[in-house]
Amino acid sequence: MSDSSPPVLYTPAQRARRDASRWTLVQGVLAPVQFLIFGVSLYLVVHSLQTGKLTDWALGSVVLKTGVLYAIMVTGAIWEKVVFGQYLFAPAFYWEDVVSMGVLALHTAYLWVWCQGVWSPTDQLLLALAAYGSYAINAAQYLRKLRMARLQKPLSISPPAGAQVQP
∠ CA 77-78-81 to the nearest 5 degrees? Predict the structure, then answer.
């Protein structure tokens, strides 16, 4: 019979550090804020591409979204250091961090072309859509991990089966 239980994300010590860290709260606040900004910005980007209206708002909203992304990435790396002892690529969040690097690259590329002003607004917004697609994938990864963490029963430190326990 195979063990079909989900993989353990946190050891008891990691769970305790996670629960005690102020960075957990920071991540818990920044993530929905970023998602709200993403939703508004996505609407503006798509609206601008369809109608040619509100283009400056759309372009600026991507800059705002990118700033919040940087904030959540920096604080997330600090959170990962506190909980897992390394800033990025802890085994429990390795693939999320790998995809996050792509998300950062696309958003940073957007900032670069936006600042340079050599791409047309339409091309900038299309790059923003690519960045947003990668962000959506990454957000889904983190939502999956959040669900896994909620389903994971805290590991108790108990003696091995058959061991004598002193009262």
Answer: 90
How far is residue 143 from each of residues 28, 35, 96, measured CA to CA in Å? 12, 12, 10
Would residue 156 count as lying in a domain? Answer: no
Cβ contact 131:103 at 8 Å = yes
For residue 115, being part of any structural domain is answered with: yes
Range of the domain at 21: 12-151
pLDDT at site 6: 61
- pTM value is 0.83
What does the pLDDT read at residue 3? 54
Residues 30 and 139: beta-carbon distance below 8 Å: no
pLDDT top residue among 118 and 167: 118
Q: Residue 165: pLDDT above 50?
A: no
Contacts of 18 (CB under 8 A, 6+ apart): 10, 24, 79, 82, 83
